[in-house]
Amino acid sequence: MDLGKHSTSPDFFIRVRAPSPHNFLWAPLSGLVSTFHSSVFRDSRSQILSPLFFSLTGLFLLLRRFVSMPFAAAGSLSLALSFPILWISEQTLSENLALALFIILSLQLVRFLERPKCSTWITIVAAGSFLFLVRIEGIAFFLVATMLPFFFRESRLFLRERFFSLVLPSATFFLALFTLSIGVSTPFYITIAKALLESFSESRLSGNSQMNFSALSSIGTRLTLFATYGMLPVFILAFMSISLLVRRRNFLALSPLFLTLPVFFYFLSPHIASDHPWVVRRFTFSIWPIVVFLAF
User: DSSP 3-state assignment of 158?
Assistant: First the structure.
């Protein structure tokens, strides 16, 4: 691994030279995804750029459900030219594949909420399961993606009528996948559990005022980071769009945002070195594309 120069200036650039096609084997089962992807795209450059192509195409299709073609094209182009995407396009990281899977999951979720179909539900389950194998956050994404339809009337009625033929098999499949993952990746989950317990213990020992100050300080640090790489104006536009959509009660357009809520925790604690732009990884594959989506 060549970390290059250690700096906090905007030109700081970390390059990872991974011996494997993707440096995301957080659990042995994720090797299945890596092997499959490498067998389809044998060239190392294609292995990196192909997920980005699907990501941009998916974002364009997602935007087209709400805005005209020029705005959809502008949104996809803005994502393609943004610093986080340009940066991961040079890396062999899990974010490349997770970005494509997350956008596909968001697109299929919106499609299902608009018009529930069995095929769309199966695509949601498949995308969520693959995302879980690529990133640990996939657990939360899968749960939100499969629970959110129960808050929309049409999709709720659809799933209730097919609970035993569609919902229960999907839940059983993911539970089996999760159980298998725990079985083959026990040390990893023990490490995660210890880290969460330590974090919880520290938060209990510190007072409320200290916790509030720490949270505000962390958010301020992230906003400074976003401003450094030209991301802050897009966040501001997205926040204005959220306010407008809430006022109009357009919860369908907000559903991709609901999907990202579990990882908003990274605003407080990204659990990664704060060196620029390494910490941007936490926001690149889920929060950032949805922020771009909401901005347009």
Answer: helix
What are the phi and psi torsion angles at 31 (to 5°)? -60, -25
Q: Six-digit token pair at 93?
A: 């990281």
Q: At what angle do helices 186-205 and 168-184 cross, to 10 degrees?
A: 90
Q: What does the radius of gyration of the chain's CA atoms come to, in whole angstroms? A: 19
What single-letter DSSP state applies at residue 23? Answer: B
Reading the block at residue 67, the tokens are 């805005």
Which residues make beta-bridge pairs with 2? Answer: 15
Contact 76, 63 (CB under 8 A): yes
Stronger pLDDT, 225 or 235, i.e. the higher one: 235
pLDDT at residue 57 is higher than 50: yes
Residue 193 and residue 187: Cα distance in Å, rounded? 10
Residue 279 φ/ψ, nearest 5 degrees: -65, -20
Task: Give the N- to C-terminal CA distance of the chain in Å, as an integer.
Answer: 37
CA distance 214 to 203: 10
Higher-confidence residue: 228 or 62? Answer: 62
Which distant-in-sequence residues (6+ apart) come within 8 Å of 191 by Cβ? Answer: none
Q: How far is CA 206 from CA 23, 265, 266, in A?
A: 36, 18, 20
Rounded Cα distance, 56 and 291, in Å? 14
Q: Reduced to 3 states, what is the DSSP secondary structure of residue 268?
A: coil
**How many other β-carbons are positioned within 10 Å of the β-carbon of residue 220?**
10
| Cβ neighbours for 268, distance < 8 A, ≥ 6 positions apart | 215, 218, 219
pLDDT in tens, 255-269: 999 999 988 888 877
DSSP β-bridge partners for residue 93: 23
pLDDT of residue 194: 75
Confidence of residue 97 (pLDDT cuts 50, 70, 90): confident
Instruction: Quick: pLDDT tens for 201-223.
Output: 655 555 555 556 566 777 778 88
